[in-house]
Write a structure and sequence with these properties.
The chain is mainly α. The protein contains five helices and no strands.
């Protein structure tokens, strides 16, 4: 269970780092760890309604490391960072972005 925890901590530590790359493992372990934390907070919020503010705060705060992590992952897959905006296209955009995010790493760093 160290891999998801390491990826989660690394994602938060590199919250403002847009340079470099993030491997598929780093990205998807962060997504899994984030899902688990969100799920635990959601369950706790159902049990204790006073935790709703904590869940909301976390949901907003996780945007900060998610954007640079996605930019680094796109770069690692050989795509330009601007591909992140493909998710704004209704229906097909988010699916297309996921396809880009699951692609294997490439040797050269793309713009």
């Amino acid at each position: 269970m160290a891999q998801p925890v390491d990826a989660f901590v690394s994602g938060w530590q590199r919250s403002f780092e847009y340079e470099g790359r993030s491997t598929r493992g780093d990205f998807w372990w962060f997504v899994l760890a984030n899902f688990i934390v969100s799920l635990v907070l959601a369950i706790a919020t159902n049990a204790v309604s006073q935790l709703a503010a904590l869940y909301t705060l976390y949901s907003i705060a996780v945007i900060v490391p998610s954007i640079p992590l996605t930019v680094r992952r796109l770069r690692d897959a050989g795509k330009h960072w601007a591909w992140i905006f493909i998710s704004l296209i209704p229906l097909i955009g988010p699916i297309w972005l996921i396809v880009l995010l699951v692609q294997a790493s490439v040797g050269a760093v793309a713009g």
